[in-house]
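Q: Convert this sequence to structure tokens.
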Amino acid sequence: GIVLTMYDARNNLSAMIAGDVRNYFGEKVYSTVIPRNVRVCEAPSHGKPVILYDYRSAGSEAYVKLAAELLKQERKEKTANAKR
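A:
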């Protein structure tokens, strides 16, 4: 799938690009969007993933939401394949 990252809701260009990507790739694009977030940028310089660096940041929460979405989609695909 495709993940939209570094999204800035305050920026019209981000919304335009996200719309274009969704229109072109359709269901391949996850609905979860990873925002532009200072904590996400700082985490690697501290040698940690953002979830360990600051689990309450918007970036961490978005990555957790993305993981849940990915697992839900994978379960859905496994169920569909098992019925074939």
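Strands lie at 2-7, 29-35.
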